[in-house]
């Protein structure tokens, strides 16, 4: 059965055959086998046949014993129903359909992460806007079947700023993520005008808010940075550099340091050995590795440097080592990488790790893997094995909320972390979660390479906002800070 893709789809398929017999580098034991009903054109009836699946890869066995497989990434998927047969799945790729019926719920739940669906309004209610950027808006999403809430990033395909290549790459990277402290995508929908990327709704603020209103103990700083380093180790193991690690992109599923989530992969890129990328200068001023600002080659250790900046802020009550009122001076300080470590009143072991993470020379700088094995994390290395197992059983999914924008750059204890206090000066939005979603009160608009709408952690920014507007960089002048979502808009280099 043939079916043509809509001409307005950004997920263009090739004209190759649906099935292929080329060699595939997946072990046979990694595939899960299930039996479904398939319609036989010869016998005009439904026959029971086996299908195997691993991630987005589906395999079938022909009568002659030959195995064929198909990668259904970005294929169209939909639930169908035929009287006297029941429910089934239709997967459309390369102008061809695969239809099968039976107990398809499990397969649909797994495949919808990799495939594209249509008609989002049949299943969800798009509710109030949570944030906006130059490339996408973020809305609250309500599932009709059970009223569960999610976040959805909506890209306008008709906008002259829409970049389909970047959206497809971001989806590819997000789909590789499966870690309790790293975001991932749940479902993706496409209409004639929009792309909808659905993620978990995180309502407990971000680290930038926490650093501005809470004094972290040394033990809490160690616990928090270990979670970030552990998550970055996983991200790097997938061959991905995040390139925008900063407090605004560290979200909380719950208001404690056990529930950190690294978000916003809008600037993420796959590592290459040459260390040069299509959009090479990416990041946020004050949080970037100096080699990026110097237009030198870089790799995974750029993320380690940015994590070191966060660790520095955790240990100094939110002080930034680079950000000052003058934006040009902020850039210069960030590029020079000269840090006053005397501001850190911590043990020698902690200072040594911090200096290793913030080493100016990337060849001498430690990697996140090396930082993770540091002696100060000895207890947490043992404890998080249990924590991660428990969380994976509860929930595999986390989310990203960050629309793109247009800047040219892109002490260990066994006690649980204390809940962060919610300031009475916070305002709140929403109806159902009226007392859970804080609005950012600070509007210190920091000039960013990646996120020109983000807030300024640890800097006296009374005059910074106006100075940044007068800078020579192309930034989004719209100041629409309503909550934590708007602090995470990413942008690519020009």
UniProtKB/TrEMBL annotation:
GO terms for molecular function: ATP binding; metal ion binding; protein serine/threonine kinase activity. Its cofactor is Mg(2+). ATP binds at residue 153. Belongs to the protein kinase superfamily. Ser/Thr protein kinase family. CDPK subfamily. Residues 396-416, 448-494 are annotated as: Disordered. Its EC number is 2.7.11.1. This is non-specific serine/threonine protein kinase. GO terms for cellular component: nucleus. It is an enzyme of class 2 (transferase). Pfam families: Pkinase. Residues 450-462 have a biased composition (Low complexity). Residues 463-494 have a biased composition (Polar residues). It catalyses: L-threonyl-[protein] + ATP = O-phospho-L-threonyl-[protein] + ADP + H(+); L-seryl-[protein] + ATP = O-phospho-L-seryl-[protein] + ADP + H(+). It comes from Paramecium sonneborni. It comes from the Eukaryota. Residues 124-377 form the Protein kinase domain. Keywords: ATP-binding, Calcium, Kinase, Metal-binding, Nucleotide-binding, Repeat, Serine/threonine-protein kinase, Transferase.
């Amino acid at each position: 059965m043939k079916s043509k893709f809509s001409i307005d789809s950004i997920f263009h398929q090739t004209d190759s055959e649906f099935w292929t017999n080329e060699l595939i580098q997946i072990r046979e034991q990694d595939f899960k086998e299930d039996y479904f009903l398939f319609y036989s054109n010869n016998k005009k009836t439904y026959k029971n046949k086996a299908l195997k699946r691993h991630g987005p890869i589906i395999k079938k066995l022909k009568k002659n014993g030959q195995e064929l497989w198909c990668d259904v990434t970005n294929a169209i998927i939909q639930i169908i129903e035929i009287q006297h047969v029941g429910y089934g799945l239709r997967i459309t790729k390369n102008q061809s359909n695969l239809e099968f019926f039976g107990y398809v719920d499990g397969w649909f739940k797994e495949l919808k992460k990799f495939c594209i669906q249509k008609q989002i309004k049949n299943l969800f209610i798009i509710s109030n806007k949570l944030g906006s950027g130059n490339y996408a808006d973020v809305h609250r999403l309500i599932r009709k079947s059970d009223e569960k809430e999610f976040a959805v990033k909506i890209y306008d395909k008709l906008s002259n700023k829409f970049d389909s290549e970047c959206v497809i790459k971001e989806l590819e990277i997000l789909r590789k993520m499966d870690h309790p402290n790293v975001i991932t995508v749940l479902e993706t929908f496409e209409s004639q005008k929009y792309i909808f990327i659905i993620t978990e709704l995180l309502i407990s603020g971000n680290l930038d808010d926490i650093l501005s209103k809470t004094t972290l103990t040394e033990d809490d700083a160690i616990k928090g940075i270990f979670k970030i380093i552990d998550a970055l180790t996983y991200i790097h193991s997938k061959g991905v550099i995040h390139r925008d690690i900063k407090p605004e992109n560290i979200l909380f599923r719950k208001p404690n340091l056990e529930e950190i989530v690294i978000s916003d992969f809008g600037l993420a890129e796959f590592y290459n050995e040459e260390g040069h990328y299509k959009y090479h200068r990416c990041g946020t001023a004050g949080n970037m590795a100096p080699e990026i600002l110097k237009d030198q080659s870089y790799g995974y250790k750029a993320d380690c440097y940015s994590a070191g900046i966060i660790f520095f802020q955790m240990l100094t009550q939110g002080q930034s080592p680079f950000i000052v009122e003058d934006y040009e001076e902020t850039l210069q300080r960030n590029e020079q990488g000269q840090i006053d470590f005397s501001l850190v009143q911590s043990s020698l072991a902690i200072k040594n790790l911090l200096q290793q993470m913030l080493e100016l020379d990337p060849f001498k700088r430690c990697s996140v893997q090396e930082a993770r094995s540091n002696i100060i994390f000895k207890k947490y290395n043992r404890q998080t094995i249990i924590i991660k197992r428990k969380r994976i059983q509860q929930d595999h999914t986390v989310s990203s909320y960050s629309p793109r924008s247009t800047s040219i750059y892109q002490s260990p204890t066994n006690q649980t972390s204390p809940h962060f206090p919610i300031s009475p000066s916070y305002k709140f939005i929403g109806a159902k979660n009226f007392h859970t979603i804080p609005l950012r009160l600070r509007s210190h608009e920091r000039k960013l390479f990646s996120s020109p709408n983000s807030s300024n952690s640890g800097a006296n920014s009374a005059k910074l906002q106006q100075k940044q507007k007068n800078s020579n960089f192309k930034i989004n002048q719209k100041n629409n800070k309503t909550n934590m979502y708007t602090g995470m808009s990413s942008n690519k280099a020009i």
